Amino acid sequence: MGYECELVEQQARPTLAVRTRTAVDRLPQVLGPAWGQVMACAGKAGAVPSDAPYVAYHNMDMQDLDLEIGCTFARPLAGEGDVHAGAIPAGKAVQCIHFGPYDQVGAAYEALEAWIAEHGLQHAGPAYEFYLNDPQEVPPDQLRTRVVLPVR
To answer: pTM here?
Structure first.
């Protein structure tokens, strides 16, 4: 699959998120409940997400992933319990859209890494995956994931 990588200037976006650690094979059991906590907290404030749900990968250790599981909002919100208020920072990033199963998203990272190297840039923060549609509503080959790597 060919990827269309592009350099973008991200605006800062307020978030609510749960920070946790897990192995990659436990992601399906971890993500849903965390997003549920985020949505419950946002619901108490009468807020709805401003973009697709995301996961920020603060490392790539597949046996001990350091994850931020959340949603962005139009305005800052207060966290509660395991749900913490934060922000996706403003800045330059390289992004592309992966079409297909989540277990094949590595190809998008490879394309982004090549693009970053080709343009003399460096990573500047965690990798973000925004899940643009719902795996409970579309088959795996129709999933769309926006992969975003902050750069400098």
So the answer is: 0.95
